[in-house]
Write a structure and sequence with these properties.
By secondary structure, the chain is an alpha+beta fold. It is built from eleven helices and 14 strands.
């Protein structure tokens, strides 16, 4: 290829002798350059994302009342567990009430409230199911924060990408035939998004939430784990090679021992695998050696927080209805029926009072309307009578003011004019020396002036020196002579 051909190839961007191909970043087509099929696919994907986002449950985790530093940390950790479908940066003010959060929950699609509160004896957790309840109240017996759990581990496994997908919920020992146990299981199930076991992608499951119920103690154990899948059936030295970690082979005599024997690994790396955590993968999973239809082990690493809960009571509505279950107080059936009857009578009386009040307000409104119509009718009748009578009987409201002005003008005549009119001759000049003298205006109240305090001569000051030390100079200047000093100033 000649020189001109190489220059032409370089200018046109074609690879040739002496020219390197250019690597341009992929550009997304602009809306004007998109085809009809591309626009339809993008619109369908956008609609599908909105439907998926709106179908999953959302939650608010907040603290009410006087919460300490540890309880605020627990609230932040629980928000971390419920990500990404929770308000991570929710700010709560002291003036906000539960009605404020309920008002904004509808437009935002929030389905659950988790409210932590602190009393003198315990820490309570209330789970509200919107919009109509029920409300479950738990007592937090024990808890550990996320930082405490991670700091107690020798090697923890937690990264930011794990919190981009919701966790997998696992319920243990919730198959009891009790109403409150079934209600707790249903509440926890609806708190997290549901999954389809036939279409779920294993690579999207990075976290796991385990809730265990103990029937004897009636306690709930809440745990949060990180999920990892590793291959089994190979030596640990080969696993380290698959993980791009070169093992220490100083004690080996042959390279074959790396593939056959197990190396002396550290305690954190020597995890026991068995039937309890080994399974056959239905699809390829992230990680080297995790192929489809291969034996792999599921490893769980706790990332916190921990909570030990106990159910106190279950209420209808948003903490304002009947108590369906109480963990400490057990009332007989007759007492419960009497309590419900009293509550029903109280609600009925309240409804009757509200109805009477509304009727009284409506009656007063009609009376005010009738009085207003009567007053308007009287004003119209009076206006019509004035129009029929004409201006003869009506008085001019400006007339008294004009008469008063004329009287003032007449009063302002000078004494000389009055003398001419009464006597019929010109007055002498000595009698009225200044007949055109301007008449004095009516006296006004004297303005108060601030009186200055007069300093007696026996107390001389800089502004009032003794007369013996004062000396007048030409051009209106004065010298104040003091003890050994002189000062000039204008008078």
């Amino acid at each position: 290829m000649g020189r001109r051909s190489r220059l032409r190839a370089v200018a046109c961007g074609r690879p040739g002798a002496g020219a390197q191909p250019r690597a341009h970043p992929p550009r997304s087509p602009s809306p004007s350059r998109q085809s009809r099929r591309q626009r339809q696919e993008r619109a369908a994907a956008r609609l599908r994302a909105q439907q998926d986002f709106g179908s999953v449950p959302h939650s608010f985790v907040l603290g009410r009342g006087r919460t300490g530093r540890c309880l605020r940390g627990l609230v932040a950790d629980v928000r971390r567990v419920l990500e990404p479908f929770t308000a991570r940066a929710l700010r709560v003010r002291k003036s906000n009430s539960l009605k404020d959060f309920v008002a904004v929950a509808g437009p935002l699609g929030v389905t659950h409230f988790l409210v932590f509160s602190k009393s003198a004896s315990s820490i309570n957790l209330k789970v509200f199911r919107l919009p109509g309840g029920p409300t479950l109240t738990f007592k937090v017996m024990e808890y550990s924060l996320l930082r405490d759990v991670v700091s107690a581990q020798r090697r923890h496994r937690m990264h930011e990408q794990q919190f981009r997908r919701p966790p997998l919920l696992v319920l243990s020992n919730f198959g009891l035939q009790h109403i409150h146990v079934k209600l707790m299981a249903s509440t926890f199930q609806h708190l997290f998004p549901s999954i389809n076991v036939h279409t779920v992608n294993l690579n999207s499951i990075k976290r796991c939430v385990l809730v265990t119920y103990e029937e004897e103690t009636q306690l709930l154990h809440f745990r949060h784990y990180s999920v990892k899948v590793v291959p089994v059936g190979v030596s640990k030295g080969l696993k380290k090679l698959l993980q791009e970690k070169f093992p220490n082979m100083s004690r080996l005599e042959d390279i074959s021992e790396l593939l056959v024997k197990d190396l002396n690994l550290s305690e954190s790396e020597a995890e026991q695998d068995g039937p309890h955590n080994v399974t056959e993968l239905p699809q390829a999973c992230a990680g080297r050696g995790n192929a489809k239809a291969q034996q792999s082990a599921v490893r769980l690493t706790e990332i916190g927080p921990r909570m030990t809960l106990r159910l106190c009571k279950v209420e209808e509505g948003l903490a304002q209805g009947n108590v369906l279950y109480h963990g400490f107080v057990h009332k007989p059936e007759a007492e419960v029926r009497a309590l419900l009857a009293r509550q029903e009578a109280k609600l009925q009386l309240r409804a009757e009072r509200r109805q009477r009040q509304e009727e009284a307000v409506e009656r007063k409104r009609r009376q005010r309307q009738v009085q207003r119509e009567r007053s308007l009718e009287g004003m119209r009748r009076k206006q019509q009578e004035q129009e029929q009578d004409g201006d003869s009987g009506a008085e001019d409201p400006g007339a008294p003011e004009q008469d008063a002005a004329q009287e003032e003008e007449e009063e302002e005549e000078s004494d000389a004019e009055h003398y001419r009119r009464e006597v019929g001759a010109e007055p002498d000049q000595d009698l009225f020396p200044n007949p055109n003298k301007r008449k004095r205006l009516p006296s006004r109240p004297a303005r108060l002036r601030k009186r200055r305090r007069r300093i007696p001569p026996e107390h001389p000051t800089a502004s009032n020196p003794p007369r013996a030390q004062r000396k007048l100079l030409p051009k209106g200047k004065t010298i104040f002579q003091r003890l050994g000093c002189a000062r000039k100033g204008k008078r």
